[in-house]
From TrEMBL:
This is Penicillin-binding protein. In the N-terminal section; belongs to the glycosyltransferase 51 family. GO terms for biological process: cell wall organization; peptidoglycan biosynthetic process; proteolysis; regulation of cell shape. Pfam families: Transgly, Transpeptidase. Residues 687-696, 704-717 have a biased composition (Gly residues). It comes from the Bacteria. Keywords: Carboxypeptidase, Cell shape, Cell wall biogenesis/degradation, Glycosyltransferase, Hydrolase, Multifunctional enzyme, Peptidoglycan synthesis, Protease, Transferase. Residues 77-261 form the Glycosyl transferase family domain. One of its GO terms (molecular function) is peptidoglycan glycosyltransferase activity.
Amino acid sequence: MAKKREGGGLSRTQMAAKFLGVSVLAGAVLAGIALPAAGALGLAAKGSVEGFDDIPANLKTPPLSQRTTILDADGGEIAKVYSRDRTVVNLKQISPYMQQAIVAIEDARFYQHGAVDLKGILRALNKNAQSGGVAQGASTLTQQYVKNVFIEEAGDDPDKVAQATQQTLGRKVKELKYAIQLEKELGKRKILQNYLNITFFGQQAYGIEAAAQRYFSKPAKDLNLEESALLAGIVQSPSRYDPVNDPQEAKRRRNTVLQRMADVKDITQAQAHAAAQRPIQLKVSRPQNGCITAVDGAGFFCDYIRKVFLNDKAFGKTRNDRSKRWNEGGMTIHTTLDPQTQKAIQKSVGDHVHEDDQVASAATIVQPGTGKILGMGQSRPYGFGPHQTQINLSVDHDMGGGAGYQPGSTFKPVVAAAALEQGTSPYQKYSSPYRMQYPSPVQTCNGEWQGTDATQNENRSEVGPYGMKEATAKSVNTYFVQLISDIGICPAVKMAQKMGIERADGKPLQQVPSMTLGVQEMSPLTMAAGYAAFANGGEYCSPVAIESITDARGRQMQVPQSSCRSAMSKRTADTINTLLRGVVQDGTGKKAGLKGRDSAGKTGTSDSRYAAWFVGYTPNAAGAVWVGDPLHQRKMYNITIGGVYHDKVYGADTPGPIWRDAMTGALAGRPAPGLSTVPIDDPNKGGNKGDGGQNKGGKHRPGQGHGGDNKPGGGWHIPGFPDVLGGGNGGW
């Protein structure tokens, strides 16, 4: 019996027997003989080699994973993302030197032998027997391509990769059978093309095109002799022959390839010698992979695209299917991101909130009537370093966001819209005391709420009675507590649902009267899309981020579409426009008003000032801005934000100006249509509170029983006053 060499491993005799077995196997395959079980040949342990005829006849070649390019609405590149950096090219797009070099060093008889090179096997047997190890392989280029197909199919699964690369005769038999199939079906040139596109060249580069770009910053078709030889040499051991980390070893390997090219007469000996004398001249392009490389702060939008793809069944029945398709890549994704809007958002957020501030800011702008997300940015950059994050502060938790943030008084217009839909007049007055308990019980969708909770206004001077217009402008808490108690909680819940306003954590809205003060956490994207319904005549359109997708073959893929529905009547939407227009003209949001452009909006500040908001819109853009601590720990008292000290942060003094500057930049040079409004008289013009006895507790129709200026939002002014607690909003 042959003995093992000292230290383990097979003896020379065993090595020779093993390779002899392979040569016998190769001969049998070439003769077209169906092999018996491996045990009969004595080639390997039981079960390691399948019967040759039992192996499936067709090799299933998975699509090669490639780069996916994400583009903005104008066709500009946002980022490239990939699981493997690869760009598949035709053989005509690969330098002839590169084709010659890879064949010379990996399989010089490639064009002479069939799927299996018996001469090469015998040569390797002899060489390895002499060395006592595995000094030379015997796989043809076709067999190597088959092995790479197995590796590609394994993806990033380490167990599957190990199986695809294990050194067993079982795997060798599969390679042989599939190699025969491919030689018949594809031919030599197609096999060479596929091999050069699938092979790993180190430095995260898969395929020759990516390798040429990585090491030399040029396309594969422009590779010269020595560059081609260098890349061909890397294939055998990408880590050992890495020219970036070990140029001397890489040069020795390159020169070996050059000499081999001369030996097989692809080049002359003089050419090989001259090329070998030249130093390695790299022009390395570092990998630019993923959303971290996105331009203009669009990393979070880029990541949102990925989340949309992984979550939407338009791209596959199961999440695993969608994930596999995303990793396969090769797509060109045209998005809704407007570069002008994105730059304006990122500049405004950066101007007002620094990335190393104790709090952060996020802003999103959508297009009314289409749901298109035009811009999405935040103060803390996308990344892994200090003051960076991968949490998208603009979106819900299931789309890569956090737990959301209390929107404060920016939720009050939702309740106002629900009341108007129920027939409440915008002239409806409530006593609106400084402090009050929530009326109890209050009707919900499934019963009633009972409790003893209380709330109050910001200061003792804020005492009603107030009508809806003034209460909205001043963001009077107790007015809206009385309003929701009057109409019931269910209409407000249903209005929020129709406007797409949901909790960021995905849980149902809690049916409690305090919802009128915005105490349930929501995201900026949700609020922006909801407010867009006011600008769009009461029609809500769900947010969309993808315009179109083409695959690697240029075929159009199905993409999710915005779903639009009526959330309220146009009359209700126009009335809300009038109320919120007054907020930016003379109310708490005056600092957010746009010059020369009709706009409307609402400030909001949560309890204890963990969050401050401004949500507003024009007819062609709706945006939401949030400022706060993502961890809900830092109260915004005695705090410096963007270099400006605040004893208290209001929705008007930080989010408001961010919204104003972002919208100004986003809409610069674009049409400035007017908002559709309704006339609401101001009964308090001239400083008189009340309605002269005309409101006896009933509900008035717009324009009835009131004097004063009849222009929407006109003829009234609110002096400066501080924020309203418990969801209140913005003073100056």
